[in-house]
Amino acid sequence: MKRIFPILSMVTAILLAYALYQALVVAPTDALQGDVYRIIYYHVPSAWTAFLLFFINFVASVRYLASAKPSSQVAAKWIVIAVGVVGVVACFLPQVQEQLKAYNMRPSALATTVVLIPIFYFLLGKWFPGQRMDVLALTTAEVGVVFCTIVLVTGPIWARPVWGIWWAPGDIRLTSTLVLWLIYVSYLVLRRFSNSAQTQMLAAALAIFGALDVPLVYFSIWFFRTQHPQPVIGGGGSMDPRMLHTLLISWLAFLCFAFLVCWSRFRLELLHREVDEAHAMESLSGSEVHAASVSLPLNRRAQ
Known about the structure:
Layout: H1 4-26, H2 40-66, H3 70-91, H4 94-102, H5 107-127, H6 131-163, H7 172-193, H8 199-211, H9 213-223, H10 241-302
Helix pairs in contact: 1-10, 2-3, 2-5, 2-6, 2-8, 2-10, 3-5, 6-7, 6-10, 7-8, 7-9
């Protein structure tokens, strides 16, 4: 695996450079916004990447909480399967399809998202057993917060010349995104400064609560009146093929970069925990030796 990392790093660097070239040179200028719209090639891929990382954090947190007891593992497994099956079937009911069409949403796209829940649940359980699941949750939360920060920074940079203001108070999309960022920052603060034995469990519960805000962020522009632009992918608008190509290339580059950062952070966290465990074992062994050395003279005195 170590040999793959330099190769993937080079591929990621090439993708990032190619995406930058596509965004600044190849993609056409927007007829209404001008060149300021080009920030979309960083703003939108950052948001998608953050959502994906928070989704993985959500699944890993659920899996970690369920691992506390064998009975909860079985219950969680069947609940996840039921959610996947019921969710897919519901997406193709005539009543639900009518509602989705009213918001220019495709049932197949929503069903695919629902199916990802059980798929990720079982794959992560196979690839990240034991404490590795908690390490994965921590890693994806940290990197997800970084990409969510990029979203919150690039959004106002675009809004200032287009809207005339940096921030639209009361806008549900903007407010829910900020709340999402605050929840996961709180999650990281809890993981960093709490030394309780229940810290991992509490953090997992907080992560699950925070993940519930992700659908609100994503679907807010369909269900609420918001100043945020309507989506151009998945309903609500259209995009020049060259713009769409550049956007997807940028997202691929961001995904590769996020994977590299998560990989490095995951390995570092594992090493950190191994060192802490070794120090704890060394301290325990030292305490036992010290206790034995003290008890030996006392036993001799008693004799």
